[in-house]
């Protein structure tokens, strides 16, 4: 594609001289700023503008201001033409976005050299922009591939739980949807505005299904027991947290290269059985010591366990479950998260009603 240059000058002679000098380029001419802007609107692919500052109707400064206001025109390079005694105009023109200037009466050789330099710079700029577009496309493709790999891996791991009848697909759907609406609601509160960003919420929702992945390591006679566990059985059951964390830990090869979603998943897995008062497991963390993903997952997991049918109990009704959540504020659960949960309880119940389980879950609330 040939280089396109717009010559803007109220002097017919200067326009003719410059056009003749630039015979190797495609040139357009305008006698003032208004005509120039009309031509630019019709020819947004103009590469360079040679612009006189002193013109009737619309002067060169006004043209420069108009070019700066329109993002589509900011890539157009502009060389301004000034008189020898207009140093202030040169400075003002450069401040308004011009890339160079040349003084009248015109030194044609100097003007041609400067034009050729800026045309080369423009071509280099286009090459860089094209390279950046290709790099952006490659990065986007790789990002999508990584996200797809992550999602497939999570689905495969959760599939292991479903095969062992640890939890149903409906449980996964419900907990993810509740995590999403709870995070979105909390993100509107001052304390969480800077924490629960769009990307972080997406990570939380994506990794929610992994919270009990460690249960694949628990023997069936304990995992699927249709009744209350003995003290020894419960000790074994609690190991599912460490099993899950260790499984994710195996995906970490370098401390400086840990994918953020792995960190989030580890916090969900490792902390969703901690209790706000410090009586939970495996580490007995309390209050803000418990990572936020664990505090969020704790209330979601318990609520869904209460309202779902288990081999050892029927599903409790929603009022009973909500009241139990309320009563555990400050003990099992973070009070601020409980408050947010109660504020959206109607939406939570709506999710529970919409995605009622179709198979018995064997997950134990312990």
UniProtKB/TrEMBL annotation:
- Domain HD-GYP: start-end pairs: 146-357
Asked whether the UniProt record includes Phosphoprotein among its keywords, one would answer yes
Q: Where is the Response regulatory domain?
A: 4-119
Record-listed 4-aspartylphosphate modification sites:
52
Q: Which UniProt keywords apply?
A: Phosphoprotein
Keyword Cytoplasm found: no
SUPFAM superfamilies named in the record: CheY-like, HD-domain/PDEase-like
Gene3D superfamilies listed in its UniProt record: 3.40.50.2300, Hypothetical protein af1432
Q: Record's CDD domains?
A: HDc
Q: What does this protein do?
A: May play the central regulatory role in sporulation. It may be an element of the effector pathway responsible for the activation of sporulation genes in response to nutritional stress. Spo0A may act in concert with spo0H (a sigma factor) to control the expression of some genes that are critical to the sporulation process.
What is the protein name given in its UniProt record? Answer: Stage 0 sporulation protein A homolog
Q: Which organism is it from?
A: Acetobacterium wieringae
Organismal lineage: Bacteria, Bacillati, Bacillota, Clostridia, Eubacteriales
């Amino acid at each position: 594609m040939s280089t396109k240059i717009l010559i803007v000058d109220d002097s017919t002679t200067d326009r003719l001289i410059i056009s003749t000098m630039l015979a190797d380029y495609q040139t357009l001419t305008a006698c003032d700023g208004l005509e120039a802007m009309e031509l630019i609107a019709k020819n947004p692919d103009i590469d360079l503008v040679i612009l006189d500052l002193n013109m009737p109707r619309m002067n060169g400064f006004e043209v420069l201001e108009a070019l700066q206001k329109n993002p589509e025109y900011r890539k157009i390079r502009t060389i301004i033409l000034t008189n020898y005694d207009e140093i202030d105009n040169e400075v003002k023109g450069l401040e308004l976005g011009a890339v160079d200037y040349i003084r009248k009466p015109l030194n044609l050789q100097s003007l041609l050299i400067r034009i050729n330099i800026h045309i080369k710079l423009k071509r280099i700029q286009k090459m860089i922009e094209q390279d950046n577009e290709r790099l952006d496309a490659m990065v986007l493709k790789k990002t999508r591939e990584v996200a797809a790999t992550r999602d497939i891996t999570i689905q495969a791991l959760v599939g292991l739980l479903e095969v062992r009848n640890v939890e149903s697909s409906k449980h996964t759907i419900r907990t993810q949807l509740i995590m999403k609406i709870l995070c979105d609601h909390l993100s509107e509160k001052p304390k969480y505005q800077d924490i629960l960003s769009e990307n972080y919420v997406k990570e939380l929702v994506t990794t929610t299904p992994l919270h009990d992945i460690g249960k694949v390591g628990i023997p069936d006679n304990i995992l699927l027991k249709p009744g209350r566990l003995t003290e020894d059985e419960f000790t074994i059951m609690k190991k599912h947290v460490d099993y899950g964390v260790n499984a994710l830990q195996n995906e970490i090869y370098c401390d400086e290269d840990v994918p953020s979603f792995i960190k989030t998943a580890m916090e969900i897995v490792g902390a969703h059985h901690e209790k706000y008062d410090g009586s939970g497991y495996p580490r007995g963390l309390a209050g803000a010591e418990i990572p936020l993903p664990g505090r969020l997952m704790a209330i979601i997991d318990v609520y869904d366990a209460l309202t779902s049918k288990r081999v050892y109990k029927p599903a409790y009704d929603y009022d009973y479950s909500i009241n139990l959540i309320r009563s555990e504020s400050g003990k099992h659960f973070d009070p601020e998260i409980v408050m947010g949960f109660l504020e959206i309880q109607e939406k939570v119940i709506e999710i529970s009603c919409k995605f009622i389980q179709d198979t018995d879950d064997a997950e134990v609330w312990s």
